[in-house]
Design brief:
Helices cover 35% and strands 20% of the residues. It is an alpha+beta fold. A hairpin with a 5-residue loop joins strand 7 and strand 8.
């Protein structure tokens, strides 16, 4: 079938089933937060505690057994050979296992507020495949008859039309938390919490990667040529920048003076800020901190 390669990945020009302007967030790298860091459903995954929460919930749910039942009198009877049972427990499509499919759908339902899969049918409407569609490609509409319709933005290289439609009977839609036709996007509501965590993470990486451990200003009594300026900067950076050079004693020549201009990380409460973000993100998912390896 090959549809998975065409509709699985996000599309910058796509619209969201929750917000028609979602493509703007992709174009500019995510939602602007108070911390100054843009947050999107994809960039949030680079924050370890967010990734761990998503992964734990998604994989735990994916492990649970799913069975199809047929009504029998006042009760029901399990149908392990039913096409739906086979799709959910063995092979949802030609390119995914049941575990990977259910993990992915739960991930999207948590992060985006909903997960969509196209139902492939043959013969007398027998379901033979479930094909996930990235949430950024979906926009929900309601027809004149009151039925839901899913507008899908196709990838330009897929060979499919620029947009196409799925009726609600041809879609498996897993809702996140929330009422109505769509669920809430955790990333949207938790953007400031996630942004603060990403900002602290970026600051720490930048501090160790780019900052001279002495962190200040070199003052030279004379005017430097461009060549001398570049030489002093490069030699000083090589000698004192990076974690391996922390704590070295600087040797200055030609009357140069050094003035510290940085705020120590302990004064900026860097470590405390990073620790605080772990339970903060866990609250959004109702996740016990020890399940994301926070054992304090």
């Amino acid at each position: 079938m090959g549809l998975l390669a065409n509709i699985f990945t996000p599309d910058i020009g796509a619209t969201s089933f929750k917000d028609p302007a979602e493509w703007l967030l992709h174009s500019f790298g995510g939602k602007e937060t108070t911390s100054g860091v843009r947050v999107s459903a994809d960039s949030s995954l680079s924050l370890s505690v967010y990734y761990a929460c998503i992964r734990n919930i998604s994989e735990d749910i994916a492990k649970l057994p799913l069975r199809a039942f047929t009504p029998v009198g006042a009760g029901r009877e399990a149908e392990p050979e039913h096409p739906v049972s086979i799709l959910l427990n063995e092979r949802p499509n030609e390119e995914m296992t049941a575990m990977s499919f259910r993990t992915l759908m739960t991930h999207w339902a948590l992060g985006w507020g909903g997960a969509i899969a196209k139902i492939e049918r043959v013969g007398n409407d027998v379901p033979v495949g479930l094909w996930p569609i990235h949430p950024s490609r979906i926009q929900l509409e309601r027809t004149a008859s009151g039925m839901l319709r899913y507008r899908v933005r196709a990838d330009k290289d897929s060979g499919l039309p620029g947009k196409w439609y799925l009726d609600q009977d041809d879609v498996l839609h897993i809702h996140g938390l929330g009422g109505g036709t769509t669920g809430y996007s955790v990333v949207e509501y938790a953007s400031d919490s996630i942004g603060l965590g990403l900002a602290a993470q970026r600051f720490g990486a930048s501090f160790f990667g780019n900052n001279a451990a002495l962190g200040g200003v070199l003052e030279h009594p004379e005017k430097l040529s461009d060549e001398a300026f570049k030489h002093i900067r490069s030699s000083f950076t090589r000698a004192y920048a990076g974690p391996d050079n922390a704590g070295k004693v600087a040797i200055l020549e030609e009357g140069m003076k050094y003035s510290s201009r940085t705020i120590p990380n302990d004064q900026a409460q860097f470590i405390e800020s990073r620790k605080f973000q772990i339970p903060e993100i866990c609250r959004w998912f109702r996740m016990p901190p020890h399940k994301v390896q926070d054992l304090e």
